[in-house]
Write a structure and sequence with these properties.
Elements lengths: L6 E6 L8 E6 L2 E7 L14 E4 L4 E3 L2 E6 L18 H11 L5 H17 L2 E9 L6 H13 L4 E7 L10 H11 L3 E2 L9 H18 L3 E5 L9 H11 L6 E5 L2 H4 L2 H14 L2 E4 L1 H7 L15 H6 L4 E3 L16 H11 L5 H10 L2 H7 L14 E4 L4 H7 L3 E6 L2 E5 L25
Parallel strand pairs: 1-4, 6-7, 7-8, 8-9, 10-11, 11-12, 12-13
Antiparallel strand pairs: 1-2, 2-3, 5-14, 14-15, 15-16
The structure holds fe (ii) ion (FE2).
The site of fe (ii) ion has 5 residues, from loops.
Length: 437
């Protein structure tokens, strides 16, 4: 996008509670944050500055999705629906769909999803891309999409051996070819290898590959209800051994839900010590895990508050939207945060705020996004929410009144409102009504 005129966002609330603030963006960066001047909002701003009146609503840094599958998104029903709704039928169904895919169809669906994302204030996505395909069709399609969306959305790609690095013939060579083509991150799926030993071996091989190439790692890890699926322990070990602290992510880690508490009490500090990031995917974990249980049925999501309390950086991902594993979703990271706080019972005010962080600042740390945040010098990327606080934004899945990328407004959404025709009642509804006092 061409350089935009300076932008002044006036009368905004910020996530830290400050009200009546204005932010000035120039050259794609925040150059000033200061209290608004009532009646004279454009005092001391450059000529030609555009003004966005926030009307007291919440201005947040954009949403970030730390875990997604853009190659499969919006393919729900192709070639059939997942009848059992399970993870394993989803993987089998994806295997049926793969030979039928075309590069154009993948790119078309991915671009459509990126449009949804921008409209929802979601401006960076880490997407896994399946490399278990000799043609690397999805890799080529998503590398092209990455270039095309770069002006308005940061797309990071993970080379993901969906059918197993050691289990699927040619997967290691394909993964290396994908990295050669420009895929950003080394993926894995140790719990899907044939044995625990091969799962551990795949973690070693992939971490060494990442270390040699200077790349980050993000593995689907222990996405299982089996409490003995402990590949995260191996991932933390190799992270530390190879000096990869801060560059490695364990995604899902659902087996931790079912682990023995004593073992978990040893594992959590080891993960913190290794500096591994964690991504939980609440919408998917709550629907795919516990499928072999009768009652009680396990929730399956990893130990979110305990990991956060141990000092592990934890983000929430959307994982799937309208694909072989999940037929719902609409790029709404507030829906993801809402499910996360319900499943993890993080209903306290502090817990709700932590869940908002999990789809914003924590996720930005997983992706290693430079210049993310609301400080002078940060990138002028924002979402203006029809809410007063992060907690209210989650409660309402608030409207994204405006989305700003690099100092330019790239999306607008009408406020949520309704016109009532009830006798003796007001003619409009205020969903943001606060308790008195
Ligand atoms: Fe995933």
């Amino acid at each position: 996008m061409p350089p935009s005129a300076p932008l002044l966002i006036d009368n905004a609330r910020l996530p830290d509670g400050r009200q009546g603030m204005q932010l000035l963006a120039e050259g794609g960066r925040i150059v000033a944050i200061r209290p608004s001047v009532p009646g004279a909002p454009t005092e001391s701003v450059p000529a030609g500055t555009q003004v966005l009146d926030a009307q007291g609503w919440l201005l947040s840094p954009p949403f970030i999705d730390a875990h997604f599958h853009l190659d499969a998104t919006l393919s729900h029903g192709l070639p059939r629906v997942n009848a059992s709704g399970t993870l394993l039928e989803g993987i089998a169904l994806w295997g049926e769909l793969k030979p039928l895919l075309t590069e154009d169809a993948i790119a078309d669906r991915a671009l459509a999803y990126c449009d949804w994302a921008v409209a929802r204030g979601l401006l960076a996505i880490r997407s896994h891309v399946d490399i278990c395909d000799e043609r690397l069709l999805a890799v080529r399609a998503l590398l092209d999409v990455k270039r095309r969306v770069a002006p308005y959305l940061d797309l990071q790609l993970v080379a993901f051996p969906q059918d197993g690095l050691l289990r699927s013939p040619g997967a290691l060579a394909n993964l290396q070819r994908a990295l050669d083509l420009g895929v950003d991150v080394v993926g894995g799926i140790p719990h899907f290898e044939r044995t625990m030993a091969e799962g551990a071996e795949s973690v070693r091989v992939l971490c060494e590959l990442a270390a040699a190439r200077g790349l980050p790692v993000d593995m689907h890890c222990d996405e299982s209800d089996d409490p003995l699926s402990r590949h995260i322990e191996t991932l933390a070990f190799h992270t530390q051994r190879l000096g990869l602290q801060g560059r490695v992510t364990g995604s899902h880690l659902t087996s931790m839900h079912s682990m023995d508490n004593y073992y978990a009490s040893k594992l959590l500090p080891l993960m913190a010590e290794a500096g591994v990031h964690v991504v939980a995917n609440p919408l998917i974990n709550i629907t795919l895990q516990g499928r072999h249980d009768s009652y009680p049925k396990r929730r399956g999501m990893t130990r979110v508050p305990e990991l956060m309390a141990a000092g592990v950086n934890l983000a929430f991902g959307h994982d799937c939207v309208m694909d072989p594993w999940y037929s719902f979703g609409s790029a709404c990271m507030l829906e993801v945060a809402a499910m996360g706080l319900h499943v993890a019972q993080m209903t306290s005010s502090a817990g709700q705020r932590q869940c908002f962080d999990a789809v914003t600042v924590n996720a930005a740390r997983v992706l290693g996004l430079p210049g993310y945040g609301l400080d002078v010098g940060c990138r002028a990327d924002f979402v203006l929410l029809q809410a007063r606080t992060p907690e209210e934004a989650i409660r309402l899945r608030a409207q994204r009144l405006a989305v700003v990328r690099g100092g330019a407004v790239v999306s607008r959404m009408a406020p949520a409102t309704a016109t009532l025709t009830l006798p003796g009642r007001p003619d409009s509804v205020d969903f943001t009504r606060q308790a008195p006092g």
